[in-house]
Design goal:
The complex is a heterodimer of chains A (about 325) and B (about 140). With about 325 residues, chain A is an alpha/beta fold. Chain A has 17 helices and 7 strands. Chain A folds into 2 domains: about 210 residues, P-loop containing nucleotide triphosphate hydrolases (Rossmann fold); about 90 residues, Helicase, Ruva Protein, domain 3. Chain B has a domain of about 90 residues: 2-Layer Sandwich (Ribulose 1,5 Bisphosphate Carboxylase/Oxygenase), CATH 3.30.190.10. Chain B is about 20% helix and about 30% strand. Chain B has 2 helices and 6 strands. Classes of the chains: A alpha/beta (about 325), B alpha+beta (about 140). Chain B: One of its GO terms (molecular function) is ribulose-bisphosphate carboxylase activity.
Chain lengths: ~325, ~140
């Protein structure tokens, strides 16, 4: 706070925030224009290009951190490849339209839609498609106003905040309420459509929601459906994948399963899957949270001295106490 | 007569790309931008009309440029300027302000001589644009 700024007359002391490095990513287009065009007979090393874009880091992280989701990963790899090739084409001076990257993620709860959206923003930023790479996550409440004339400014405000990045609309089907024709959601959709069409350079819109309700939403808004190029479906996880997710989560939290707890955990997941309101990875997280509670309680109740192994190991009892096992037939 | 107010006013008018670069610079520094317009070109007219509220929480120049374009569309023959405010302690003032649109024709100013007490002469400047009512000064 003691730093006395220069009142615009001299450069500020440290000047670090004014470095050209900070400013350049804001204008990839200007940068590309400045670059020399390649000769028509030039050869470009694709592997080298790929390395420079650093997209592989994000893609590999996506592979490592997210279990399963093969169709999603394939589509995202395809998009990354397209953007890379487009960039090369522009260096040869081949004009090609900017690809339409608005997307729709459909899938059951807890299948990783939001997580993928965050990674996607980072990936698109590395490939120079968007300038900032931030994700603005909104729901109906952030877009739709409460009274006449409130919706348009509210929606525009959100869109402006998302410019240069990705706008993620969770549970997008709530935007349109078929039963109420005076609902302001329709107005938000119209503004959204207009911006998706006219400012394609400035932001990527990702809609997310459950499959059946999104289908109904698109049936009522055909304009929206046709403006979205990529409809990606997130499949439900198999028990094996859920187990892998569980192990990944435990590892991150610094827990391990006792060897006899592994089959119990699998059994738990199988039973939980058949119950109503199963939310895939989110249910796994909740199961682990509850196991942690029981684990802590068990240690305190035991009253014996504990060491590192006791503190990090979850035993079968921590899972067997669950309602899922008692609630049988 | 081309009026010169704010930063860059002795340069040729900035293109949209150049304006974007300036906005990006302001946003890098954490200065919220706002758009203002007027049709009173007098140099002492410091309070221009605000085009919406100052834009906080913006991270990209495109959003600010969008508002500039909206303002240009609504007031095609007004002066429009972009103002970036530095809220840092010890500064708390406009950090950057420049014109992003000017009317096609700027009639300029005349000097009015006025005799006051003791045969003193005062001179004041009068923009020709002010001879017409607000709203159709540059139509």
């Amino acid at each position: 706070m003691n730093e006395r700024p220069g009142f615009g007359m001299r450069p500020v002391g440290n000047g670090s925030h004014e470095s050209s490095e900070d400013c350049s990513p804001a204008f990839p287009s200007a940068e590309a224009d400045a670059g020399e065009l390649l000769a028509p007979d030039a050869r470009v090393d694709l592997a080298q290009e790929r390395k420079e874009s650093q997209a592989d880091e994000v893609l590999d992280a996506l592979d490592d951190d997210l279990v399963g989701l093969l169709p999603v990963k394939t589509r995202i790899r395809e998009i990354a490849a397209l953007l890379l090739i487009d960039r090369l084409r522009s260096r040869f001076g081949i004009a090609s339209g900017r690809p339409n990257l608005h997307m729709c993620f459909t899938g059951s709860p807890g299948t990783g839609k939001t997580t993928v959206a965050v990674r996607l923003a980072e990936l698109l930023h590395r490939l120079g498609y968007i300038r900032r790479g931030h994700l603005v996550s909104v729901t109906r409440d952030d877009l739709v106003g409460q009274y006449v004339g409130h919706t348009a400014p509210k929606t525009k405000e959100v869109l402006k905040r998302a410019m240069g990045g990705v706008l993620f609309i969770d549970e997008a089907y709530y935007l349109y309420r078929a039963e109420n024709e005076r609902d302001y959601g329709q107005e938000a959709i119209e503004i959204l459509l207009q911006v998706m069409e006219n400012q394609r350079d400035d932001l990527v819109v990702v809609l997310a929601g459950y499959k059946d309700r999104m289908d109904a939403f698109f049936a009522c808004n055909p304009g929206m459906s046709s403006r979205i190029a990529h409809h990606i479906d997130f499949p439900d996880y198999s028990t094996g994948e859920l187990e892998a997710i569980g192990h990944l989560m435990l590892e991150r939290e610094g827990y391990t399963l006792a060897s006899d707890a592994v089959p119990v955990f699998r059994e738990y997941l199988e039973r939980r899957r058949d119950q109503p309101r199963f939310a895939n990875a989110r249910s796994v997280r909740n199961a682990i949270e509850r196991a942690r509670l029981r684990h802590a309680n068990r240690l305190l109740a035991g009253g014996t001295p504990v060491g590192r192994p006791e503190l990090t190991t979850l035993r079968p009892a921590d899972f067997l106490a669950s309602r899922v096992f008692t609630l049988r037939e | 007569m081309r009026i010169t107010q704010g930063t860059f006013s002795y340069l040729p008018d900035l293109t949209d790309d150049e304006i974007s670069a300036q906005i990006a610079y302001a946003l890098e520094n954490g200065w919220p931008c706002s758009v203002e317009f007027t049709d009173d070109p007098h140099p002492r007219n410091s309070y221009w009309e605000m085009w919406g509220l100052p834009m906080f929480d913006m991270s990209d120049a495109a959003a600010v440029l969008y508002e500039i374009n909206e303002c240009r569309r609504a007031y095609p023959d007004h002066y429009v300027r972009l103002t970036a405010y530095d809220a840092r302690y010890g500064r708390q003032t406009t950090a950057l302000s420049f014109l992003v649109q000017r009317p096609a024709e700027e009639p300029g100013f005349r000097l009015d001589r006025e005799e006051t007490s003791d045969r003193r002469v005062r001179v004041r400047i009068h923009p020709y644009a002010l001879d017409r009512p607000q709203g159709d000064r540059y139509a």
